[in-house]
From TrEMBL, chains A, B:
It comes from Nonlabens arenilitoris. GO terms for molecular function: DNA binding. The lineage of its organism: Bacteria, Pseudomonadati, Bacteroidota, Flavobacteriia, Flavobacteriales. It comes from the Bacteria. Gene3D superfamilies: Tetracycline Repressor, domain 2. This is TetR family transcriptional regulator. Residues 24-43 bind DNA. Keywords: DNA-binding. InterPro entries: Homeodomain-like_sf, HTH-type_Tx_Regulator, HTH_TetR, KstR2_TetR_C, Tet_transcr_reg_TetR-rel_C_sf.
Amino acid sequence: MTRKNQILKAAAQLFKERGYSAVTMRDLAAAMDMKAASLYNHISGKQEILATLILEVAHEFTAGMDAVEMDDKSAFAKAEQLILLHIKIALEYTNALAVLNTDWMHLEGAAYQEYILLRKTYELDFKKILQSGISAGEFKNISVETMLFNLLSTLRSIYLWIPKKSTTEVADLKKELPQILLKGISS
Amino acid sequence: MTRKNQILKAAAQLFKERGYSAVTMRDLAAAMDMKAASLYNHISGKQEILATLILEVAHEFTAGMDAVEMDDKSAFAKAEQLILLHIKIALEYTNALAVLNTDWMHLEGAAYQEYILLRKTYELDFKKILQSGISAGEFKNISVETMLFNLLSTLRSIYLWIPKKSTTEVADLKKELPQILLKGISS
DNA sequence: GTCTATAGTTGGATAGAC
DNA sequence: GTCTATCCAACTATAGAC
């Protein structure tokens, strides 16, 4: 692992615990056992760290959504795949995902614009899948907004739950969560 | 409304938008059309504002839970009442609830201890109700942890959804959310 | 690549006039 | 109750030695 990646990893951990604004470059340097000034040999500043962490995860979601849309399956199967995508990302990028969820509004400039666009596109794509499921009679005919709200609010919280759990409990989650979430909206 | 309450209200709005650490006393004063120094005639400091906002909402949850526990109803009915409690608090204390959800870790000293205790007690009480529902055969025999995770992660996100919605859409939510959430765990 | 030293800015909070 | 003025600590980031 490069020194830069070590810094990013340590930053994700600290930003998750205390939030972007409450973590100082001195805190981050201390976690890395170095002085704050030395960090600047690897990264251009605090903002670059935030943007790198958040945009990597956001692109992971976009790539996952693209893969799901490729498959020619039922809306139900696609929704199930998306639930598993959220669990997978929560496992692989736990800390960076927490940062995305809580500190995206502290992005600046082009990184902010890019994040907003990625999120909007992702939610729109998700909504299309739900809508096609309603049209096909797979899902209840309730408001797509309410449906998406319920799904995303649970999916966005997985990262809070994952780190506390054992491997077997995570396996349970992969089985039970699609059941619970999709039973609630199935017709 | 007292000047202090006006300050608390403005602070809740700003903390919700940018987070506790990113909002300065000068920002808050500007939102109140006054100078930062004048704030200190009404509050002792930034921490007092945070603690007041969060603990008021936390006590509201505790009072609601106490009322639900008093009633001698089925676990299903109690769970339904708790869902409505979360919606009610999200409507009445939208901004302060957002602050509780995102900035509780910035509480200090006794206020931090009190919040942690209130939250732990609330979750334990919620779990007891779910467990009694499983024992009574009202709910599926799946992990109580998973069940609570799913319920709370949705309920904790309501405040993100509420401010964007019309009165009729909120009425829809009150009808549909208990259905969606409880169907997922009903046996 | 890391350090010391420090520039330049901004933070929470106080003192004292009005 | 609000203001101006200010203290002092802490912040991000840079300069330059090693």
